[in-house]
Design goal:
The structure is a single chain. This protein is of the alpha+beta class. The chain has two domains: about 1-180, Orthogonal Bundle (Helix Hairpins), CATH 1.10.287; about 185-350, Glucose Permease (Domain IIA). The chain is about 60% helix and about 15% strand. It has four helices and twelve strands. The strands form two sheets. Strands 1, 4, 5, 6, 7, 8, 9, 10, 11 and 12 form a ten-stranded antiparallel beta sheet that branches. It has a two-stranded antiparallel ribbon with strand order 2-3. Helix 1 (about 1-85) runs antiparallel to helix 3 (about 105-180). It is elongated and about 110 Å long. This is Peptidoglycan DD-metalloendopeptidase family protein. Keywords: Coiled coil. Pfam families: Peptidase_M23.
């Protein structure tokens, strides 16, 4: 009996040590994933700026081509005027001045030449203006090309940094998995994660009143999701794993679904709402919780980066975050839940097929 008691005490002590080590590794994992989120957010901003720069570069190239074509047309018009002046220029002005019989003809020719000179001067001024515009556009083009090269270099550097951070995160994740060797420890951890999410939702519900008042002040009505069943758009691209209600481990069951979304892809709000929670949560990684009114909330977990802050009003289809592997996941995706007054609902019944 004493030996059994001793064995139980030793086993419990080892379990407690594993849980302590697990907590330490979870903190390391959190730090690594927050660093990844910061880098991913910067990379996302660089991608947008890069796309905009390429559009501006394309517009400048088109503008340059149009100006060069205009200059060519002006050159042809100027050449035509010079040719006309030459063809009409067989006059001896000295004779015409002293020969009063040709005074009328002289006046007509002089008027004609004045007209040609004014037209030619106008064409020359127009030509000079086009050359100056072309020089300005070329200067802008050179500047944009330089900025584009810098952005591409920044993007490459940020991508390498993100890759390095992901490797560190995966190393922390692998070490964490090795610590969790028994079903008892695993179930205990899952229950802790579930409790943490419930606590976060409860805290969000307490903040919901103030959030709704803010939404009302911005003329946004939060009417819940009761009339949207079966009509909500999917929060992310990719195949949906309908896991709701299935046994996860022990007595713990899935409360949501998973979308096999590509890392860095956009996560969208399924309906109008206000962000009540945006932070890292043990087991769920970077999480955003959106309140839709009437007790309805949606949960978006395992994100690579969060793009909205607490208090932000979001409209249906607007970006919330970037899908990822936070929370110790080995495969990229989005974890998604729908809750009504704290109770988990089956997302498959609310989302469009």
């Amino acid at each position: 009996m004493a030996k059994i008691k001793t064995l139980i005490e030793q086993t419990q002590a080892q379990l407690n040590k594993n849980l302590v080590d697990s907590e330490r590794l979870q903190n390391e994992l959190k730090l690594a994933e927050l660093q990844i989120a910061e880098t991913a957010t910067i990379l996302n901003q660089t991608d947008k700026k890069l796309s905009q720069t390429r559009i501006e570069l394309s517009n400048l190239q088109a503008q340059k081509s149009n100006i060069e074509l205009d200059i060519k047309q002006q050159q042809n018009a100027l050449a035509s005027q010079l040719k006309s002046a030459y063809m009409a220029g067989d006059y001896d002005f000295a004779k015409m001045v002293f020969n009063q019989d040709q005074a009328g003809k002289f006046e007509r020719v002089l008027t004609y030449y004045q007209y040609l000179n004014k037209a030619r001067q106008k064409q020359i001024n127009r030509f000079r203006s086009l050359i100056k515009t072309l020089e300005d556009v070329q200067q802008k083009l050179d500047t944009q090309e330089s900025e584009l090269a810098i952005l591409i270099e920044q993007q490459s550097s940020q991508s390498k940094k993100l890759s390095s951070q992901q490797q560190k995160r995966f190393a922390a994740y692998t070490a964490l998995e090795k610590q969790i060797r028994s079903d008892q420890a695993r179930v205990s951890q899952l229950q802790q994660q579930e409790n943490a999410l419930v606590a976060a939702i409860e805290a969000a519900e307490l903040a919901a009143k103030a959030a709704r008042e803010k939404a009302t002040a911005q003329d946004i009505e939060l009417n819940g999701l009761s009339t949207a069943k079966g009509e909500l758009g999917k929060p992310a691209n990719g195949r949906m794993q309908a896991l709701f209600g299935k046994r996860r481990q022990g007595q713990v069951r899935w409360k949501g679904v998973i979308f096999d979304a590509r890392a860095g892809s956009t996560v969208r709000a399924v309906a109008d709402g206000i962000v009540l929670y945006a932070d890292w949560l043990k087991g769920f990684g970077l999480v955003t919780i959106v309140d839709h009114g009437q007790g309805y909330m949606t949960v978006y977990g395992r994100n690579q980066a969060l793009l909205r802050n607490v208090g932000d009003v979001v409209l249906q289809g607007q970006s919330l975050s970037l899908a990822g592997t936070s929370g110790g996941q080995s495969k990229s995706g989005l974890y998604f839940e729908i809750r009504h007054k704290g109770k988990a609902l089956n997302p498959s019944q609310w989302l469009q097929n």
